[in-house]
Amino acid sequence: MPVTLYAYMVKYIVRELAVLSPSRAVSDVVPEDVDQAIRNAFLSLDRDIMDTAAKAALGPTFLNDAMSQLSPAYSGSCALVSYYHSDSQQLKVACTGDSRAVLGRRNAAGEWEATALSKDQTGKNEEEVARLKAEHPNETGMIEDGRVLGMAVTRAFGDSRWKWSRELQQQAKKRFFGPSIIEPLLTPPYLTAEPVITTTKIEPEKGDFVIMASDGLWDNLTSEQAVDLVGRWLKTHDPVTEVKPPNLAQVPTAMAEQQISTRQNPNGKIAYAEIPPGDENDFVVADENAATHLVRNALGGGNEDILCGLLTPMPPLSRKVR
Q1: For the chain, which domains are there?
Q2: pLDDT tens across 266-277, in order?
Q3: Which terminus of the chain faces fewer neighbouring Cβ atoms within 10 Å, N or C?
Q4: What's the predicted TM-score (pTM) here?
Q5: Which residues in 164-279 belong to E strands, given as ranges?
């Protein structure tokens, strides 16, 4: 979730809680109100993003202002929010998109077990596919190869191409060089920002911890691998101790040209070699920060060639490799 979206999200959730429970302190809000406040906040924030952009696309707006207001709607973002009530030890997780929250907990044998607290909302999720087919019953080609008209996720903020009507998109394209219209665009919106919310009882005495990450991590590590990695990190680190942020300047980000793995496509063009998911043989514990530890191992761990190779590409190419 981008920092700007996160900042707005917190404000929206607090506002919704105040509306639903005006006479209660935040600590006394009932669980049902928390769920509703989070749901309302997600939908309200996305509605404001889309409505502001739509007004800019249709109204008498200066170009600079219009582009600034259209940009959040043209782009897209997933969101993952957790809310922990320390008195009841209840953890709520709200997910829109394919970010994922995973609980790590010791079992009776002292081994770490992974439990997903959210489901990836993609065209491969059977529940999401059923929901979309019910909402758009006559669109047989809407979902192909696990994608909704080419989009991997089924829920997101922004992404106007999957939400706006054809007429509105045509106006935005004509006036402000908007993106092309996806086809077949028959009955939008196809995406929603409404989150799926789960509630889980946390057991601190079992050393419970939660990993929250975007699909960039989960494309390279399974939930079980990520929990195992944090378990390894905990063996040598005290999680209560305050840890300084890592010095990213010390992480190597360049390789000699001959070290970068490439291959030839049939058409003769150079393509980046496919990097396999996390190899447990390369897992290392080399960071003071648990989050950095996870990222390092998702990008090659102790294999410096792969690690450096994945850190070398700059935006926008970097999005395709890490």
Answers
A1: 1-214 (3.60.40.10), 220-322 (no CATH)
A2: 444 334 444 455
A3: N
A4: 0.84
A5: 196-201, 209-213, 262-264, 270-272
